[in-house]
């Protein structure tokens, strides 16, 4: 279990690295290139990575907390998951994380440029100009 969490955290590192690379690329000229950057495929890809990293990290921490809680509260029971069950849960967490991050990319008509509404390509939707579905999706994902 513990060796899979750094994978999600590493994705955040990749995201931050590329935000830094593009910051250096557009240094001093960001205002001229902002729209081009936010509409780019690169922005969408790193936004996807950031969302995937965030969601998988939260789900992994939730699972780990729940597993440890059960072991502490019921120390003499057999509530410990088997290796197969743990593998299944971890695989499900990653697949759910990929799905959550990919949904906005797969339906641009409903979500618009979901990852390209700010310079860091992270879907924090709070403007009134956002599509209602994109705003609701962000709110549901990050608060849910």
Automatic annotation (TrEMBL):
PROSITE patterns: G_PROTEIN_RECEP_F1_2. The keyword Amino-acid biosynthesis does not apply. Gene3D superfamilies: Rhodopsin 7-helix transmembrane proteins. One of its GO terms (cellular component) is membrane. The keyword Coiled coil does not apply. Its main location: membrane. Pfam families: 7tm_1. Residues 37-144 form the G-protein coupled receptors family 1 profile domain. Keywords: Glycoprotein, Leucine-rich repeat, Membrane, Repeat, Transmembrane, Transmembrane helix. It comes from the Eukaryota. It comes from Cirrhinus mrigala (Mrigala). InterPro entries: GPCR_Rhodpsn, GPCR_Rhodpsn_7TM, Relaxin_rcpt. SUPFAM superfamilies: Family A G protein-coupled receptor-like (SSF81321). This is G-protein coupled receptors family 1 profile domain-containing protein. It is found in: Membrane.
